[in-house]
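Sample intake sheet
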Amino acid sequence: MSAAARKRAGTEPRPALHTSEHPIVKVRRSKIHGRGVFALKKIKKGTRVDVARRFTKDCHELGIVIHGTFILGLPGETKETIEETIRFAKEVNPHTIQVSLAAPYPGTFLHNQARENNWLHHEDEELLTELGTQIAPLSYPHLSHTEIFDGVEAFYRRFYFCAPKIADIVGEMVRSPEMMKRRLREGVEFFRFLRERRELAA
């Protein structure tokens, strides 16, 4: 089915998931905070890690496809929490992922917090390049904007470039010619995305 039901982890009990009309559930995730709480809670959002684990386990058992979205660079981020987030993503194993950089849009709580604490790498810097690629506008005393930016590519590579995930994707392509076309197109776009990020960082 082309339609996708967007549900937040933990908002749907297992019986509701089982009777869902849509076979695809889009789950919004972010990074794991050191105390086991997602850092998005600091900007008025968040879901407990144990709830997210139970939710994804239920989805896997019921055959519901999960797309996980993760954010790097929120306040409290460290090299260790980036590593924890990557390990968490591999553990819960969503079908696909999207990794974004924290974006302090003017007028938001995060932007105000960043200005107050001098976290903005450049006060007037745009959040996107002309090609639409995200930059890393936030920089912390213990974690530079370059380290946050590089964390996105490391995340993608460690999630997708491993034997189990490659086997899943190849299996999909073998079973469905339509999926083969889609995955090949996405593969080309993915490697172009990585190349553009490296050029931006150079």
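Comment: The chain has one domain: 5-161. The chain has a mean pLDDT of 77.
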